[in-house]
Amino acid sequence: xxxxxxxxxxxxxxxxxxxxxxxxxxxxxxxxxxxxxxxxxxxxxxxxxxxxxxxxxxxxxxxxxxxxxxxxxxxxxxxxxxxxxxxxxxxxxxxxxxxxxxxxxxxxxxxxxxxxxxxxxxxxxxxxxxxxxxxxxxxxxxxxxxxxxxxxxxxxxxxxxxxxxxxxxxxxxxxxxxxxxxxx
Length: 184
Hints:
Number of strands: 7
Helix content: 25-40%
Oligomer: single chain
Largest sheet: 5 strands, mixed
CATH superfamily of the domain at 64-182: OmpA-like domain
Order of helices and strands: HEEEEHEHEHE
């Protein structure tokens, strides 16, 4: 008797074994069916606590310093004549001030104080110093400073140099950074 192998028998051949006895073919199928593999349970994974990624500390600028109750700067923030517009020449300095503040999160609040010289009307100088201080606050906030920044204008009331010379006037036109609150 001839055994015709068809596609269905081929499938059985893969699962069983074909033996030939005395000229006859017989098909024996392994009665054991393989047991399904049981997936191993995933090992318990210990979850690490979620920690907010801290901003990497950027190298401290060399022209901005925390000294006592002040942030001091080696240069001056430059403004357009008789205006609160910060000149582009001061952009890099403002970037450095912002970097220093970002590096010193312990400085919770600062008072930005604008000063003028004695040239011009007292009320005009007072208003100009307030607007300049506010311009600096806005420039720092736009650079990502998150500390509390308050602006104050001192006008011509707190001169560094009392003489009525060009050199003294230049020295008196300034912006100061007073540390108002520091966290320990």
